[in-house]
């Protein structure tokens, strides 16, 4: 008995691998568990409790939070379910799905990077015939400014960065947009100068 | 998949970078901390001057400075790891050993993070989903910007300074649409001489299915110590993966 106890003490640190920020008091089977609580546990587990990630993200997904697939895919290295779901939702013109699919193609995560396709997704999103949340619209312009920067399309960078400066609720995005705008203006000036020479 | 190289050489991976980010794929394995000590020795010899750490909060900066000045007061740092970073007793000790190693090598130790209470307060106002749709910023985003700002200031302060920064993989790289990594933030702020080295493998990844993405190399390589170009998450910066030989420790 003493031997078993000693073994248990020795291996105990390896059994519980969750970090100190992980909240173990939230019961995954509680009848009053909300989607938002399950979603937060799913995202939080990515760094703080990877061994609980699958159960929490699957739970959040079952409860209707499909973006749990983002975290699940990052964790298991397989974006198949995420891609399929995001494409299905974009085909159904669901506003929040566009940025997820565009992020995958823009970054080359789980798919071959395709900046042009990412840009077309954001443009399609902005052209949707629906009431779009301001934050999502500003975020799309922010992404477009960055994607166009990678293509050195300075006129487009100028247009989308200006939108971010005027409308984004996020200070970090505005700061980055100011830098992008300055860069775009400089590059446009250089281009115009060389055309006039 | 890029070619593997069993001569794990940090000087080669760092090349002429001014900032090397060592990104652990999990905070749990103690082996990552001791591998980072090995990295620090090589990188110090290559001219790196600072060691920045996610695991140290800026609010104990004066205690760290005191420890570096006098060699005394390590207990405060040790206690911090014990209370806030105790994934396992061994890993919290490992973080402490990493700090000691940086100090012995004469590197300036730079704390990066905010207090946990502040993270909770920020997340109370803005959750991950709200942040990922661009309506507000959660603690993950705020922390990444804070760290990038500290790294930037230290690089600008002294022309010859070169920093090794140690953090979790999902801070170094993106973890979502709006959850961009330090790699992108630093690039956006025109710091381009950066190299990222990701640690995978170690003691967490034997077939119990709990550590996918941490060290999913093919079976014959599981016991091999190697590095290769490229990382699990794509990055625009030069990036490398160091695989630590895996050891069987079951968690479930």
Description:
The complex is a heterodimer of chains A (about 200) and B (about 250). Chain A contains 10 helices and no strands. The model of chain A is unreliable at about 1-15 (pLDDT under 50). The longest helix of chain A has 26 residues, at about 170-195. In chain A, about 75% of the residues lie in helices and about 0% in strands. An 8-stranded mixed beta sheet of chain B has the order 1-7-8-6-2-5-3-4, with helices on both faces. In chain B, helix 2 (about 30-45) packs parallel to helix 5 (about 90-105) and helix 4 runs antiparallel to helix 5 (about 90-105). The two termini of chain B are about 30 Å apart. At the A-B interface, helix 1, helix 2, helix 4, helix 6 and helix 8 of A face helix 6 and helix 7 of B.
Features of this protein?
A: 197 residues; mainly alpha; 10 helices; 73% helix; 0% strand; elongated; B: 252 residues; alpha/beta; eight-stranded mixed β-sheet
């Amino acid at each position: 008995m003493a031997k078993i106890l000693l073994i248990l003490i020795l291996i105990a640190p390896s059994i519980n691998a969750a970090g100190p920020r992980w909240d173990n008091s939230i019961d995954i089977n509680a009848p009053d568990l909300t989607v938002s609580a399950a979603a937060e546990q799913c995202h939080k587990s990515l760094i703080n409790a990877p061994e609980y990630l699958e159960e929490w993200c699957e739970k959040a997904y079952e409860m209707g939070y499909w973006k749990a697939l983002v975290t699940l895919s990052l964790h298991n290295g397989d974006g198949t379910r995420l891609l399929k779901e995001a494409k299905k939702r974009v085909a159904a013109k669901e506003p929040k799905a566009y940025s997820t699919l565009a992020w995958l193609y823009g970054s080359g995560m789980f798919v071959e990077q395709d900046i042009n396709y990412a840009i077309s997704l954001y443009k399609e999103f902005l052209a949707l015939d629906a009431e779009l949340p301001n934050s999502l619209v500003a975020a799309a312009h922010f992404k477009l400014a960055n994607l166009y920067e990678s293509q050195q399309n300075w006129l487009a960078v100028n247009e989308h960065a200006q939108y971010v400066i005027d409308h984004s609720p996020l200070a970090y995005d505005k700061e980055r947009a100011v830098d992008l705008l300055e860069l775009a203006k400089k590059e446009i000036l250089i281009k115009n100068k060389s055309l006039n020479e | 998949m890029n070619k593997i190289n069993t001569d794990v050489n940090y000087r080669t991976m760092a090349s002429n970078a001014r900032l090397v980010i060592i990104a652990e794929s999990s905070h749990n394995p103690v082996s990552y901390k001791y591998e980072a000590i090995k990295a620090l020795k090589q990188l110090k010899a290559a001219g790196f001057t600072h060691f920045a750490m996610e695991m140290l909060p800026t609010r104990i900066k004066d205690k760290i400075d005191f420890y570096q000045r006098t060699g005394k007061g390590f207990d405060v740092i040790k206690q911090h790891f014990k209370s806030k970073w105790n994934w396992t007793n061994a890993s919290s000790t490992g973080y402490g050993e990493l700090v000691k190693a940086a100090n012995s090598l004469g590197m300036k130790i730079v704390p990066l993070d905010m207090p946990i209470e502040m993270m909770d307060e920020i997340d109370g106002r803005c959750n991950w989903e709200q942040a990922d749709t661009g309506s507000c910023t959660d603690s993950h985003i705020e922390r990444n910007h804070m760290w990038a700002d500290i790294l930037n200031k230290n690089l600008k302060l002294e022309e010859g300074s070169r920093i090794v920064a140690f953090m979790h993989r999902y801070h170094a790289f993106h973890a979502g649409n709006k959850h961009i990594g330090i790699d992108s933030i630093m690039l956006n702020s025109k710091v381009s001489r950066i190299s990222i080295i990701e640690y995978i493998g170690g003691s967490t990844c034997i077939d119990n299915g709990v550590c996918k993405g941490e060290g999913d190399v093919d079976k014959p390589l599981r016991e091999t110590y190697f590095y290769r170009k490229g990382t699990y998450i794509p990055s625009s910066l030069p990036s490398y993966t160091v695989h630590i030989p895996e050891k069987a420790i079951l968690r479930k």
